[in-house]
Every structure is written in structure tokens, then in C-alpha cells.
Amino acid sequence: MLDMMSYEEFLTNEAFPIVKDKTVLEIGALNDKITNCIKNAGASSVETVDPVDNGGCKPTFRGTANDYYNQKKTAYRKFDVVTCMGLLYHLHSPWHLLEQIINHTQPDILIIETGPCKMYGRIDKADGVHEELYSTIGNAWPDEDIKHPIRINITSRMEDLIKGIETTPMKLKRYWQYPEMDLMVKDFVESNKDNMWLGVFNREE
Prior knowledge:
By secondary structure, the chain is an alpha/beta fold. It is 22% helix and 24% strand. The chain contains five helices and eleven strands; from the N terminus they run E-H-E-H-E-E-H-E-H-E-E-E-H-E-E-E. Strands 4-3-2-5-6-11-9 form a seven-stranded mixed sheet, with helices on both faces. Strands 1-10 form a two-stranded parallel sheet.
């Protein structure tokens, strides 16, 4: 078990040193916090994909991952590293996104952070305190040409995700399970990291 550290320190010093001097595509960037960790770890460049501007942070490509790949069909760009942090459990087709990343961007390294969907709503406690738990069910942003998105997601166990990804040339090299770590995440991300994990996959061909 690692000593107590902040989530930011974990990403910068433990998970992301592998991006040093590499080009990085960050899918589902949300805001600049994880992007800054990637930059601080020494990436040579970072391009971001997200459907919305968050807190004044503008993604390099404004749209969903599907929008990004649909618009790049004739000229897919290769990146050394692709990161997909806290996104897969929002999607109804996470396997499709992983296929696009692996086949079209062809990264040497794939870093994913994911976990089970949080399916909770409001909790009324005996003392009258109400607690709102964040729900990720079907809240992924729809592609630009989808008027009526299907509001559901499909999540997989860590073992099944690893097994599926490893049917491609991407092979798991290292992973961390957050429940086994004592990470401080308050004030860095808007939700906790209970039951989540981060995996680093390398391309072997």
C-alpha cells in the first residue's frame, strides 16, 4: 500500500511518468486538472477531447470521442499515449470507444481509469440530513447528430475489461486499485474514487 498522497500526486508521480516526452491524447478531459498532471509529468504535447467547456477550460476538440473520430476518418493522427480517465462508466458503448482508440489512434500506451457506475440517488438519513450521491447512469454527452440519445450505460468488472482489451495488441502492464490506497481526492475531483482502478496497457505487436 502506498503512503497517504493526494490524487494529484498519485497521477503526476506514480501513474503518469510514463508519458514523459510523449504525445498524449486525453479523451474526456473535463477540466484542466488531469491535463495539468499529464503536462507536469513531462508530456511533449497534450490534445484534449471533450464535448463541453468546463470552468473556462477549452478542449482542443470540442465534441464527443465519436465526433472526434468521425471527423478524422481520412486522417487519423497517431499519438504515443491515450488517456481515458473517468469516462467509460458513463457510456452505453465503452467497447466501441476502446476499439476506436486502439485501431485508429494506435497508441503505444493506453491509460484508463474506470470503475462501477454509481447508481445512487438521494438518501434520507434518520437525523434529517439529506445526502445526494452522484449518478452516472446515462449522463454521457450525446454525439452531435444524435437528437434522442439512449440514457443507459454498460459497465464491466475490472477483470472483464482487462480480458477484453487484451484481445487486441494492448496488454496490461500495471494497475492500481484505489480501494487499496489512501488517496486524498477532496477539492481535486467532484466525486470520490471508491471502487475505481487505473490500468496502463502497452501495445505489443
